[in-house]
Design a protein that fits this description.
single chain; 300 residues; alpha/beta; TIM Barrel; eight-stranded parallel barrel; two-stranded antiparallel sheet; 44% helix; globular; binds ligand LIB3CWND; binds magnesium ion; lyase activity; metal-binding; magnesium; CoA ester lyase; lyase
């Protein structure tokens, strides 16, 4: 344990399951799933003529009780579409943890939703998340991350749309997409925004999914957006700190907490150089590991 402050809250966002709000069976199923959050989708998984039914389903779902210990995110349609404003009325009425904006092209898309929340007097804690899935969005990633609204909480990459708009094909390893993925991660990190990797469509191939989770973790993503319950376990596992990382983090924290380290900025821990700059990441990692352990012990 340590009393070292971290600059932003530590949250578990390893597994964010998208549930089409039109699918009442899937909504009910979500109540018993071990994902860290649910993205209630009003956008691409809901046909235009079913949008109101989907909003009504969400109202019924929230009225029946929220999911203990998990984040509730509502993905709206673009504000400029015929559905976005009505979706925002649902968001304001239901007060989820976050509203996810699709196909964000620039800071103005984020600010418009943040302004609607502010004007409605929505709780300051309701975050705005941005889907990074258009060529303009990726090009403008830094400007979007630096929009300046305290509501901006996370980027979620959407490779289906990005592939559609760029013509880059689906391919194991995501070779030609890596520069764009890393640009989104870098922009998010520059402004303290969390960053979630894209869905994997092939939900029956869990080996390929595990490989993509490992890759996403290596790129610096906090977690993954999911489309099927079968993906939850691997996502939770691969985006949780592993035992060796936790041991290393605890050793760094302990080494700097030792009175003998007072006034020292550089130490040797387990044969490697560590500096004071390593303390905050170590504290965050240890805190994440504690949250993950708590969640594992929770009954869903
Ligand atoms: C992809 C699916 C349509 C497959 O559904 P289905 O054929 O029903 O799968 P299964 O028979 O294997 O389902 C087994 C049980 O699990 C439940 N289930 C399935 N998916 C979900 C879910 N997402 N949430 C909760 N529960 C789920 C089924 O109901 C079955 O339950 P039971 O009958 O009791 O056994 C389906 O998985 C699906 O619709 N997935 C989500 C699609 C979605 O949300 N799309 C939008 C997000 S994708 C995106 O954002 C892309 C991004 O924008 C980009 O550009 O990349
Ligand atoms: Mg999309």
């Amino acid at each position: 344990m340590t009393d070292i402050a971290v600059s932003r809250p530590v949250r578990l966002r390893r597994s964010l399951l998208s549930v089409p709000a039109i699918n009442r069976r899937a909504l009910e199923k979500a109540r018993g799933l071990a994902c860290d959050g649910v993205i209630f989708d009003l956008e691409d998984s809901v046909a235009p003529e079913k949008k109101q039914e989907a909003r009504d389903n969400l109202a019924g779902f929230f009225a029946a009780g929220r999911l203990a210990g998990r984040e509730h995110v509502i993905r709206i349609n673009a504000l400029a579409s015929a559905f976005g404003r009505l979706d925002m009325e649902t968001v304001i009425a239901l007060a989820p943890d976050a509203v996810l904006i699709p196909k964000v092209d620039g800071p103005e898309d984020v600010l418009a939703v943040a302004d609607l929340l502010d004007e409605a007097g929505a709780a300051a804690g309701i975050e705005v998340w941005a889907m990074m899935e258009t060529p303009r969005g990726v090009l403008n990633a830094a400007a979007i991350a630096g929009t300046g609204t305290a509501r901006l909480g996370a980027f979620v990459v959407g490779l289906n749309d990005l592939r559609k708009d760029t013509g880059v094909p689906m391919e194991p390893g995501r070779t030609f997409l890596i520069p764009w993925l890393m640009q989104v991660v870098l922009a998010a990190r520059a402004y303290g925004v969390e960053v979630i990797d894209s869905v994997s469509n092939d939900f029956r191939d869990l080996d390929a999914f595990a490989a993509e989770c490992r890759q996403g973790r290596g790129m610096g993503f906090d977690g993954k957006m999911l489309i099927h319950p079968a993906q939850i376990e691997a996502s939770n596992r691969h985006f949780s700190p592993d035992a060796a990382d936790v041991a290393e983090a605890e050793a760094i924290i302990a080494a700097f907490a030792d009175p003998a380290a007072a006034g020292l900025n550089v130490l040797t821990v387990n044969g490697r150089m560590v500096e004071r700059l390593h303390i905050e990441p170590a504290v965050r990692l240890a805190a994440k590991a504690r949250l993950a352990a708590e969640r594992e012990n929770r009954t869903t």
